[in-house]
């Protein structure tokens, strides 16, 4: 029996009308508490896997074995991911377990995806699952840090996870789930829990370049940066959620605390090589006049304005990463960010590596009053 075009059109119209009638009737139960039919669950998961595989094609995976990347990803995972997906020693939130579908524990699922596919999921999120897209969509470097951590997750026990995610708080045996801010008065015990997890209570970070040193910065610059994150003029899927909902008064007290911290006496690590440092010294002190690049230390030296950051003794990898973000238009920041965007666009990768190495080799400076 052959079906003509007219009959086929009628069949399709009847199916469409039946679907609309079913939706209009309200019979279908959309309650999260009802779960999915087995066929629905299979179809959605199959569709998701195929979509991720297709959309992740062509994404190049960078090296993911840098401990600084892993620490950065772990720090965000503890607050941004663990409540839904759990972690070693951390159960999933009861609220998350009432979602449909449930956010899965990740270890059994990570090996199913290639690193580039994990990157795509973390960056873009997944519709109809509650999995959000990355808050700072321009910050691929942050997303790759989360991927670097996820690839280590199956190797971690509770102690290893806490060390990566909570740093000195885990080593001190302090509560890891307290409020970020409490009473930011004189002594800073509990209020800095959220910040200290990554930056340390003394503002010197973890010594790996995973997080910038805050000690030695002026209060004006730190507050301007925190406000830029809160107002989303500085892009970061890690820092924007961290400061979201915190009032300006609390942010000001945080800035004042870290501005009071003394920086270490030495730079952030051994220089890669003398020739590279010497090239960076010339750029930092003399600029590159032929390309219109001013001397870095003319703005960021000892006589800098309080709203400009101190760069001496900062981690080289962090500095290089920020310069690339400025160059590529992915950073944003305070009202002066456009100045750095102009400068960074005139530097090539070699010059960025060189000037970062030189600045990292310098002894840190105290904050400008």
UniProtKB/TrEMBL annotation:
InterPro entries noted in UniProt: Cyt_c-like_dom (IPR009056), Cyt_c-like_dom_sf (IPR036909), Cytochrome_c_Oxidase_Subunit (IPR050597)
Gene3D superfamilies assigned: Cytochrome c-like domain (1.10.760.10)
Recorded superkingdom: Bacteria
Entry GO MF terms: electron transfer activity; heme binding; metal ion binding
SUPFAM superfamilies for this protein: Cytochrome c (SSF46626)
Domain Cytochrome c: 68-154, 168-262, 275-363
Name used for this protein in its record: C-type cytochrome
Organism whose genome encodes this protein: Marinimicrococcus flavescens
Lineage: Bacteria, Pseudomonadati, Pseudomonadota, Alphaproteobacteria, Geminicoccales
